[in-house]
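Justification of resources, computational component.

The compute hours requested in this renewal are based largely on the per-chain cost of generating structure records like the one below. Each record pairs the submitted sequence with a full structure-token output. That output is archived, and it is also reused by downstream analysis tasks.
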Amino acid sequence: MKLGKKVWQSLAVVALLANLAACGGSDSSSSSDTDTSTSDSSGTDNSGTDNSGSDNSGSSSSSGSISVSDFSDISLGDCELDTSLESLVCAANALIDTLDEDELADLQLDYSDSEARTVWSNLPTGNVSRNGIELGALDDESLEAAMMVAKAALSDDGYQDFLGVIAADDYLNELGGGSAYSSGKYYLAFFGDPDVSGDWMLQLGGHHLAYNITYLNGDGYPVPNHIGTEPKVSFELDSASYAPLADEGDALVAMFDSLSESELAEAYLSGESYSDVLMGPDNGSGTLPTDYPTGDNRKGILVSSLTQDQQALVTAAIEQWINDYPEEVVENLTLSYVTSSAYADTYIAWAGTESAGVDVDVAGTYMRIDGPNLWIEVACQNGVIISDETHYHTMFRDKSWDYGNNL
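The structure output for this chain reads:
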């Protein structure tokens, strides 16, 4: 273990708090049927969009980007073990061994602190501070170890999505977005001690990203999970190509494209509009959300009423989210979400400009899969830095097992 690094961290915290007070930035999730907003709103504009694209609205940290492409083929090395959880615990302990006392205090938090565990956001870190150690503030050894933790916690596809989201911030910075956008401004925290049989939680997040993965007696619960990306299409950075949510968006569009005209009309959420996702950040509530649509407010078309080919497209869309995690986690999720009994109580629905149909290039287009436990939603917002294109905000939640149902 190393000792005595980063005395400046306390100053960064003070500056961050001052920045938050100045801009009044916080994200909120409303369950209103008419409008919802967890939108990036770091400026004074209340229009439900991200106005953080300037140097003076970013995090107070001095961290820079982390050369994302250098980590695309990272190996777990000696932590390539029999199960994904064994590999993750090994990688977590390897990271711990590289950190000094101050960094460990930031990384390792109290599992019983439910309020802290429910602090995450879609907003840039200059608006909502995150738990844990900042990737861009780590030395090379610790940074590589932290990226190994991300690699071990996710599947290959999930890890590439993670890299794409953080690379997108560097891309926005290059387009003139300012210091608010940086791959270095992502944070990693452990609540409790990483263990193959104990109870603990991994939290990894920043702008457009929140992984909250709870482990209970060896079982993983990777919810709630937020991923967003601007741009939503493929982009290139440092000679590497990224498209972190392209497959997810395409799968949902294919699902809705399979519907007949009458089925698409049945799936339409008439009279409802969504500027953002409905079930967004929990804002440190310390409790599970209770405002999912219920009863007659659960709208759309039942998956069980669709043909087998159409149901296969629903399954393919769901798999785009759950397959971001290791096989042991996916198996349990599949048994909960992708069965005939689940599909008898699963609705797909959309909102937006009815005449345009399900068009992800139109702001306000919204898509949802609402099961007895599963909740997946995608909102298309106007771009912030790339103003002539829409971008995605997505949520993957479980009505019963967010945070392992263990807050």
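The two ends are 31 Å apart (CA to CA). Confidence is low (pLDDT under 50) at residues 1-62.
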